[in-house]
Design brief:
Radius of gyration: 15 Å
Number of strands: 2
Structural class: mainly alpha
Order of helices and strands: HEHEH
Number of helices: 3
Shape: globular
Strand order of the largest sheet: 1-2
Helix content: 40-55%
Strand content: 5-15%
Distance between the termini: 40 Å
Length: 70
């Protein structure tokens, strides 16, 4: 019998996230558009935010101020 966790789990490859952010930023910059990375889906995890910033996003956004202070 296979036991399954009842809790959802999210695994994020930070390297892929950084590269994807960089690709979006590069594409948008050709049109003069800046990108804000939204960290709401991961409760403002600082590692996720750092990966997006390292990828070149100009700001981070979240619907909860407490998450942004992390």
């Amino acid at each position: 019998m296979i036991r399954m966790s009842t809790n959802p789990r999210l695994e994020i490859d930070l390297g892929k996230l950084r590269r994807n952010a960089a690709a979006i930023v590069n594409l948008a910059s050709t049109r003069g558009v800046s990108i804000t990375g939204v960290v709401k889906g991961c409760c403002g995890d600082p590692l996720v935010g750092r990966a997006m910033l390292d990828g070149g996003v100009s700001a981070l956004g979240d619907s909860r101020v407490a998450n942004l202070s992390r």
